[in-house]
From TrEMBL:
It comes from the Bacteria. It comes from Clostridium senegalense. Pfam families: DUF1450. This is DUF1450 domain-containing protein.
Length: 74
């Protein structure tokens, strides 16, 4: 399995929920919270994270979690 790095923006709503679930269910992957992940145009409107540098954008915190989970299970 390839260890993935998941980065969350500290200003993005709902990141705590997603990070907590990822940390609990996928502890082998690294999660970080940054001041900014370079997607400010999306951060105010959507739920976002980066997985190994790739921006993941979702309409809800639950769908963000599900989208990240799909990537981690590959």
């Amino acid at each position: 399995m390839n260890k993935k790095r998941i980065s969350f923006c500290a200003c993005n709503a709902g990141f705590e929920y997603v990070k907590e679930r990822i940390d609990k269910e996928f502890p082998e992957h690294e999660t970080t919270v940054n001041k900014c992940i370079g997607a400010c145009d999306k951060c105010s409107w959507d739920f976002i994270a980066r997985v190994d540098g790739e921006l993941i954008v979702s309409e809800s915190k639950e769908s963000l979690y599900e989208n990240i989970k799909l990537i981690l299970k590959k």
